[in-house]
Amino acid sequence: MLNPPQKLNPKLFDKDVEQVPIRNGFGEGLLVAAEADARVVGLCADLTDSTKMNLFKKKFPERFIEMGVAEQNLASVASGMAAMGKIPFITSYAMFSPGRNWEQIRTTICYNDRPVKIAGSHAGISVGPDGGTHQAVEDLALMRIIPRMVVISPCDSVEAKKATELSVKINNPVYIRLAREKTPVMTTLETPFEIGKAQVFFTSKDYDALSVKKGRVGIIATGALVYKALQVARKLDAEGVVIKVLNLATIKPLDTQAIEELAKETGGIVTVEEHQVAGGMGSAVAEHLAQTVPVPIEFIGVQDQFGQSGTPDELLEHYGMGEEDIIEAVKRLLERKGK
Amino acid sequence: MSLTPSKIKELELKANDVRQSIIEMLLEAGSGHTAGPLDMADVFTYLYFHALKHNPKNPEWEDRDRLVLSNGHICPLLYATMAHAGYFPVAELKTLRKFGSRLQGHPHRDFLPALETSSGPLGSGLSQAVGMALADRIDHGRTSDKQFYCLVGDGELDEGQNWEAIMLAGKEKIQNLTVIIDRNNIQIDGFTEDIMPLNPLADKWQAFGWHVQEIDGHNFAMIDEAIGDARAVFDKPSVIIANTIASKGVPEFERRFEWHGKPPNKEEAELALKEIRTWRGKIKSEHE
Question: For A19-33, what is each residue's pLDDT tens digit?
């Protein structure tokens, strides 16, 4: 069942659950952050509407800079503005920022210790018809390996809004991963959110029954696929598989306590992300658990491939991130645990 | 108001001190770059000892002018000038490139917070200077009297990011930004016009909406006049193409691209110091 203290959307499992693009939450959060803090400035590389920086631009034209299609300059100009005390937000598609301007982010933002906030929109394979060139499935890896960078992958628009507002409060550079497609709204304004804290969204009703300990499975999911993880958990719960689902929005710094607890309780983890399996959230979880609570792990994500055109659902299924794939991963994990 | 002869002599002697320090620190380090630091010594000396509004005892002074070194590899010059200006003891220059030193092989603010930026990877300094000036404009409008200087190498202009920043500064008409190019005509692999032609360099900047001046980068009177002129231009960013002689001050090293990225050995350093001191004697006698 959904974890009551998380105050999740009660209509979450309904067919007509409200669906909003995650990037919309960023746009709203940026506006609130800018109203609260005059140091906030916005820079965009010719994608102001689709990255949802348009709300900010309209309200604060004097604090907005149109950069043109120039992502390298985007990152370093923001660094210079931060050097003068501003808190810059930079937006483009994730493929181009942080895809194209990685070294500028590493050197002029992180090495320089400047609190620039990077919003990468249209991340993941679900960008769909645009095809593989535009499907950023490497961005989490690119960002989490840079010292000082905080990496957040919100699961829905409400969480994206909170993450955006809170990113201003920390003095680090922050990467916020956003998706283009409409995503079911899972959380509510009352759902607690803290950068660096994972949340248990779902716990099977029999989770605490000692007799089933051997059959427990932990799912750690991030981004829009949290929704699929919850659907799978509900289905398998009905079939008697005992599951807990952790929403891991902050990929760096990792909530090591929550992850270790889950691994200890379940003895096996499935990670779910819309990203290359290499270097992404699952890797971060595995790196930590290998040293602390080594348990079997199954990884759902892109398997060292480039994407292609298609609808989001077609692509998610083709590249192994559909509900059936998650169910199979859970079953594989149970088998491995049984041995 | 142009520089007086005595001021010019003072600056020439100061630049000579800085050049000696550069040779001494490179010898001690055993690695590092020689040509650029020697040939930009006059421009740096002019900035730190005449033009910049700054306070070496209070590097974080909010109202200071900002100087961004983009081609971080010429940092022996930056460090030497800062030390002679009073930011830290001249003796510390001998720690260049050593473990734990504040004087990293390429500038790093973590180690030396008085630096405006960390730098080394080429082509991103100008973007940062543009960002600084844009932030200043948000706070103080177009009449701000704060000056933003960015020093770039000529070979560095091969990097496409520079041209993104040049476009933006032209579009935004950033009047208090001055770029100074070290036009020494060399880069690691050879002469710039053989590796990747930059000419017509002045025309290119002009086409992007910049106020362009070309000067002898070793002539303090010309440097002074160009900086004054740049500050007087209201509706455009300024670029000063400082024609310099690579490794200026050591005739045996001059104009040779081999000296871009290597330090002198003991004999070469002795020769270099002898040449620089001889030059010092000439400066003294010429002005008498």
Answer: 999 999 999 999 999
Question: How many residues does this entry show for chain A?
Answer: 339
Domain boundary among A123, A157, A184: A184
pTM of the model as a whole: 0.97
The two structure tokens encoding residue A106:
């590493």
* A145 vs A152: CA distance, rounded Å: 13
- pLDDT category at B222 given cuts 50, 70, 90 is very high
Q: Inspect the interface and report whether the beta carbons of A41 and B135 lie closer than 8 Å.
A: yes
Q: Is the dihedral of CA B21, B108, A70, B147 positive or negative?
A: negative
What amino acid is encoded at B165 in this protein? A
Domain shared by A179 and A214, yes or no:
no
Q: Do A67 and B139 touch (CB under 8 A)?
A: no
Q: How many CB atoms lie within 10 A of CB A85?
A: 11
Catalytic residue among A71, A159, A273, A274: A71
A113 and chain B: CB distance < 8 Å anywhere?
Answer: yes
- d(CA B38, nearest CA chain A) in Å: 26
Q: Which of A166, A184, A202 is the last residue of a domain?
A: A184
In the chain, the amino acid numbered B167 is: M
Burial label for A107, CB within 10 Å (0-12, 13-18, 19+), is buried
Which chain B residues are closer than 8 Å to A146 by Cβ?
none
Instruction: Return the residue matching tokens 């000082």.
Output: A148
**pLDDT of B59-93, one tens digit each?**
999 999 999 999 999 999 999 999 999 999 999 99
B40: CATH: 3.40.50.970
Residue A13 domain-assigned? no
